[in-house]
Amino acid sequence: MKQGLSLRVSQHLALTPQLQQSIRLLQLSTLELSQEVDQMLDENPFLERTEDQAEREEFGVGQADTPVSEGDRATDHDSEFASAPMPDLGSATVTSTSTDEDNAPLGGDEGIDWDGDGSTEMSPDDGEWGVDAKARSNNLNGDEDKDATELARTHESLQAFLHRQALGLRLSGEDSAALRFLIESLNDDGYLEEPLEELAATLNPADEEELQELLHHFTVALGLLHSLEPVGVGARGLAECLRLQIAALLQNVELDWDDREVLQVAYRICQQPMELLARRDIKRLVQLGVGSDALVREAIAAIARLEPKPGRRFVDVERNIVVPDVLVLQVPNTASPKFRVMLNPDVMPRLKVHDIYANVLRNHRGGKDSASHAALQQRLQEARWFIKNIQQRFDTILRVSTAIVERQKSFFTHGELAMRPLVLREIADELGLHESTISRVTTAKYMSTPFGTFELKYFFGSGLGTESGGNASSTAVRALIKQFIAAESAKKPLSDNQISEMLKEQGIECARRTVAKYREGLKIAPASLRKAL
Fold first, then answer.
1. Does 85 sit behind a cis peptide bond, omega within 30 degrees of 0 on the bond before it?
2. 343 and 215, same structural domain?
3. β-strands 47-49, 351-353: how paired?
4. Which of 428, 445, 460 is at the close of a domain?
């Protein structure tokens, strides 16, 4: 084997720590970004939130580069430093606010290099991002008294509602404790998923006799739980939940004989396998002797009016709140519809670098412990880049949202039936970004529109061919299918094939399988289950 030396030129892409952080922040949702900011605030003492914005609004961003005299700087430094807590300069976790002229070259190479790749200049003012955005509530209707989050916090949970009812029962200490235990074991739907034997075993009884005693108290407590509101709570399954509700209706002494007979048939149906009820297999239920054909039909209709999830209305609504990242507001008093796209100031973190700590670090350059100074300088630069990357994240979201609104202006004027076909590549080409960047921006980011709040991905959809040679958005086709089904006859619901033919009459080529896929995506039952009995 002959050995030799050769020279080869090649190119490769290296992701700097700044670029990696920028990409990661871009794909985070609002909640995840808030958690990331909280974590960074805990880890980096050079970073802090800004609450008081009066001084910032008075002088404006344009004054960020105005030099400060040495006398004023010394006076401010002495007065602020005397009252502020001093960080441990030997630690690698500190926070502060400074300008770029204070960013001296690092003397050490420990940790991640946050000096930047030189592609973009740093903002002249570390405290610029998010400071001029005034915080306000989530209400868009002008009511500043209570927002949705405050209303959610006042919502009573299922457990609290049941505990309040249990206070009115005269129980022994053991039965009361067992009832409290069962209430806390309910899931969000109000069901008791675990068997009583397993619940009793979790209390580690000493022997079999103690286990049986626990089972006795749990059995008594379960009966008491079934007597509480909402009716059906504490059921071990859907069938038992429905039977409890039917039994409660049968206790009404004012029921006439016909209604009572229908409820009795409904009770017997719920004693049969639930798949028969799900399939509406009336013929099989009649064969099992639960009632006549007419009574079974009426009983199934009565069961459909019951609540399959007793705890549904007690679910913590705060978890279902979607705070939009972008607000789209129609500009009033214009000849043609115009829309204003703006970031939601409620989701924009207001951060700055801590002035006092940055000044302390700048005034103690060099010294004996140069390694600690370099580590702290690294933290300071990390805080600056974090603020810059957050700003870049929201700038990109705003650019993409503005492009979406411009492309889908018909939707914001006429609704989802006017949605146009749109793919990620169109927005990427328009903004000069990569498709993957557009995908990250539109995932888990929401836009508030005159027609509701939607994820940014909602405005993208493939196109279906039309007779005129154009394309119709799949989102508009779904809306049209929903409209057809909403207007159908309850006794003769539309089949997927009929809906496909109706779309063809509208000039849209949509196969039956595509209609079925869109219908299932809309969570609409097939025609056989939509038919009124």
1. no
2. no
3. antiparallel
4. 460
Question: Biggest alpha carbon distance in the chain?
Answer: 104
Instruction: Evaluate whether 317 touches 371 at the Cβ level (below 8 Å).
Output: no
User: Please, which residues bridge with residue 466 across strands?
Assistant: 508
On whether both 206 and 246 belong to a single domain, the answer is no
User: Exposure of 172 by Cβ count < 10 A (0-12 exposed, 13-18 middle, 19+ buried)?
Assistant: exposed
Report whether 494 contacts 488 (CB < 8 A): yes
Predicted confidence (pLDDT) per residue in 385-402, tens digit? 999 999 999 999 999 999
Q: Which ranges in 342-369 belong to alpha helices (H)?
A: 355-363
Q: Are 50 and 173 contained in the same domain?
A: no
DSSP alpha helices (H): ranges in 100-172? 148-153, 158-166
Chain segment 253-295, per-residue pLDDT in tens: 888 888 999 999 999 999 999 999 988 888 999 999 999 999 9
Closest CA to 229 of 208, 245, 250, 243: 245
Considering the domain architecture, whether residues 495 and 440 belong to the same structural domain is answered as: no
335 is a domain residue: yes
Q: 3-class SS at 326?
A: strand
Exposure of 283 by Cβ count < 10 A (0-12 exposed, 13-18 middle, 19+ buried)?
exposed
Assess whether 275 and 404 both reside in one domain.
no
Boundary residue ending a domain (290, 312, 334): 312
